[in-house]
Amino acid sequence: MRTATFVASAAAVVATATVGGLATRPAGQSVWYRQLRKPAYQPPRSAFPVVWPVLYTDIAAVSAATFDRLRAAGNAPAARSYLGALAVNLLLNASWSWVFFNRHRLAAAVAVNAALTASSADLARRAIAVRGGRAAWLCLYPAWCAFAFVLSTHIWMLNRRARIDVP
Fold first, then answer.
1. pTM given for the model
2. Which residues cross the membrane (predicted)?
C-alpha cells in the first residue's frame, strides 16, 4: 500500500468520524437520549470509543490497499467504483449520527443504518474479491453495522409511541 493512498483514505475516514462525532458529542448530556428506552444488550458508552477507532483504522487501511491493488492491476474503472462505494459508505456512516442524535428521527435512522449495513457488506465483498483473506478484517465493519441496525431498530420500536420532551 502506498503511503499517499493510506493518508488520503485515513483523511476521508477521519473526516467521517469528525462529522459524525459532532452529532454524537452531546449524547451523554442529551436529555432526549437519556429519556429513550433502550434494550438491555446496548453496549456501555465506554465501548464506542474503543470499537469505532479500530473499525475506522480497518476501513482506511483495507480500502487504501484495495484501491492500490486495483490501480496496480491497471483496473482504473474498478478502482473508481471502489472509491465511489467507499464515499457513499462514509457519507452514510456520518449521516446516521446526524439523523439519530441530532434530528431525533428514529425510523429514519433505522433506514440509514440498513443502507449503511448493506453498503459496508458491499465494501467488504469488493475488498475481499480484490485482496482475498487479507481484506477479511473489513468484515468486522458490516458485522458491527448489522448489530447497530438491530439495536437502532429495537430502540425505535421501544420509543415509537413515546413522547420525549426536549427542553
1. 0.92
2. 47-67, 79-100, 136-157
Tens of each residue's pLDDT in the chain, 167 residues: 899 999 999 999 999 999 999 988 665 678 888 899 999 999 998 898 899 999 999 999 999 999 999 999 999 999 999 999 999 999 999 999 999 999 999 999 999 999 999 999 999 999 999 999 999 999 999 999 999 999 999 999 999 987 765 55
* Sign of CA pseudo-dihedral 49, 14, 151, 156: positive
d(CA 31, CA 165): 8
CATH code for the domain in which residue 91 is found: 1.20.1260.100
Residue 75 Cα distances to 127, 128, 130, 131, angstroms: 14, 16, 11, 14
User: How many Å apart are CA 136 and CA 76, to the nearest integer?
Assistant: 23
Q: Is residue 164 part of a domain?
A: no
